[in-house]
What we know:
mainly alpha
Amino acid sequence: MTIFYNRARIVAGLTAAAFALVFLLVSPQARAATCTFSRDLQLGAVGEDVRCLQKFLNASGFTISTTGAGSPGSETVEFKSLTQAALVRWQESKGVSPASGYFGAKSRAAYAVASSGSGPSNPSSGGSTSDSSSSAMQALLAKVTELEQKLKAAQAGSTGKGYESADADDVRSLMEDVLTAVEDAENEIDDNPDADEIDDAEDAISDAKEDLYDGFRAYVDGDFDEAIDFLEDAQDSAEDAYEYVGGNSDKEDAEDLIDEVDDRIDDAEDEIDAADEDGEATSDAEDLLDEAQDALDEALAAFNDGEYEDALDLAEEADELVDEALDAIGESSGGDDEDDLYDRLDELQDDLDDAWDDVDTAIDDGDDVGDAEDYLDEAQDALDDAEGAIDDGDYDDAEDYLDDAEDLINDALDEL
Length: 416
């Protein structure tokens, strides 16, 4: 559903936006009066919804076939090439792009508008559109017409509302999230019609759609703060509907995992401290746990911003880092233990002292040793840094400093 409200097409896609609103807001009773499409249809599909689509196309002047299978009165449950060809012609007439013969979300939205007048009855419904459903549809179409007029004025630049501002971007982004939440909730309701709280779920999804419409209208009017308020209410209602029928939302999952990882980090800190007191190497474990805490902080920030999917991903990353931190207790990623590094430090210090002796000899011979002295001074600094890193348990850093010192001593000797 987000294809109707992506940021590049909110204003330009006037027809698509109107179709999307009709599809989302039309009552279940009104939809059931024609065909009920709960899935995408394409070449090879089989089912009563295919038969209903064929009846609709035939009744709308896009004849499947004049005789035999697929002809008026002889519609079938099989989606074959003739059905695809008729669907392409119908899509072209309705401005559905691409007109590929694939009956997806765009086509269902266009169908909702087209079927508001007359069309084939759904085989499962056994009846025609009720008066109340017709009235609801007409009222809805009037609202869509009003929105189209305002959107056209906005596109022509006559409203001066500033549709490309950062606030407008925020509204459009939230609208995408709400549409996804509504679609997820409706799918969950369809999958769990016998859920104990199905009535509450349907009431909540109805509230979500109403707030979604009000949020869209506020956006068109340029009142972005009000739009966000409505859309946030719509998102909450959609998530409530989802949970009423047994679904777990990203929000709930993220909140639970953030709490769980926070507790795991505390426990891991205790284990690392205990290992450090026992003389085990803990530097790598501490670094990984710091990364875990950073990822968890980012997850919490994303959660507070309403970006629940991102929050869940970041919390999962933090959880994995905690595992790595615990696995790293007692390990040294440098490959050398503390004694080996101290031995190498002592050897390089001896090499450095010998190099200074060579420098003194060169001075006595009247040679220019300025560059060599600079290299040896830098080598001493590197050895000092290496010693500090070993003391701190940062064995990777210590090994890097020792490599630098060795290179600098060799550079100095090359200058002599």
